[in-house]
Design goal:
The chain is mainly alpha-helical and about 300 residues long. It contains twelve helices and four strands. It folds into two domains: about 140 residues, Winged helix-like DNA-binding domain superfamily/Winged helix DNA-binding domain (Arc Repressor Mutant, subunit A), CATH 1.10.10.10; about 140 residues, Arc Repressor Mutant, subunit A (Orthogonal Bundle). A hairpin with a 7-residue loop joins β1 and β2. α2 packs across α5, α3 crosses α4 and α8 packs across α11.
Length: about 300
């Protein structure tokens, strides 16, 4: 029997290791009817699905490092097994979006549990998956591969979802409501936003147009009568004028309304500076652009549905 080289190369050792690893995972996944390659695609798709994303075959190819034609072959096999579905991409007629079926999700979760258990056993000689030796080894492999470090959970990079936007909006709303409550001004969030709109945009020449604008703001959650009551309340308290339909406009802040807005806005600005502290300005600019684009798309989509 041929003896191994006295000083084996890194490439040889990696080849031996990956060959042994692939064969062992193939054996471990036999009860689920999966191969190691199928598991790689299924687990990656499961990672994407946790954020609500439906990746294309190209995106999964880029993520897994598998050739696009191989990903296509694997996807067809998993589709035939009832583990995933392929749907036409809404904007690219040449692409397919992939999503797990309920059965596929169940199989993916079971497979991930099996592979994680195997990985603990496989790395036990160097202390298990969370040992310093294993983490050092993982970082070295990522350096050789020229990619950033990521966990072994097969989860893709975090993707922005509607839930993320909703949770952020809810948290920011709670902060604003706390500021308004502490101010003892008696101004509600919709009322403060209305004052701010008039402060930043100036007087609204048409009461009817201003009324329609406020009705169209989803963050208010107010219908026509609700906006009418909102404006009437602000005018009764002497904070705005000209809001009634027969008043002829313009709708504008009174001196008292301008002073109150300035006081509240200064407090909000101080808190906002703390909130955004240490966040990279470039990241904030990107977030701004994404949210503007999402708002525009959602507005168009609402009229189409």
């Amino acid at each position: 029997m041929a003896q191994p080289a006295e000083n084996p190369t890194v490439g040889y050792l990696l080849w031996r290791l990956t060959t042994r690893l692939r064969a062992a995972i193939d054996r471990a996944l036999v009860p689920l009817g999966l191969t190691h390659a199928q598991y790689t695609l299924l687990a990656s798709l499961y990672g994407y699905s946790r954020s609500g994303a439906q990746p294309t075959q190209r995106e999964l190819s880029d993520w897994t490092g598998l050739e696009p034609i191989f990903v296509s072959k694997l996807a067809r096999a998993l589709e035939q097994a009832g583990l995933l579905e392929r749907a036409e991409h809404p904007t690219d007629s040449r692409a397919f979006q992939l999503r797990l079926t309920a059965h596929g999700t169940d199989v993916a979760e079971r497979a991930i549990a099996i592979v994680r258990s195997f990985q603990e056993e496989f790395t036990a000689p160097i202390g298990g998956t969370h040992s310093p030796a294993t983490q050092t080894f993982v970082r070295a492999l990522h350096t050789l591969l020229g990619i950033e470090h990521r966990s072994d959970s097969m989860a893709p990079p975090t993707t922005l979802t509607g839930q993320d936007v909703s949770e952020a909006e809810g948290a920011l709303t709670a902060v604003l409501q706390r500021i308004l409550a502490d101010s003892n001004s008696g101004v509600s969030r919709p009322e403060y936003i209305t004052l701010r709109v008039l402060a930043l945009r100036g007087p609204a020449e048409s009461p009817a147009a201003f009324h329609a604008y406020l009705v169209g703001q989803p963050q208010f959650g107010l219908d026509g009568p609700g906006v009418t009551a909102l404006l009437a309340g602000l005018e009764t308290r002497g904070l705005i004028s000209g809001s009634s339909a027969d008043g002829g406009g313009p709708v504008e802040l009174t001196a008292a309304g301008a002073d109150l807005h300035a006081t509240l806005a200064a407090t909000v600005l101080a808190v906002t500076r703390r909130l955004y502290a240490d966040i990279d300005p470039d990241d904030l600019a990107i977030a701004h652009n994404v949210l503007v684009e999402l708002t525009q798309r959602a507005t168009r989509m609402r009229t189409e549905l």
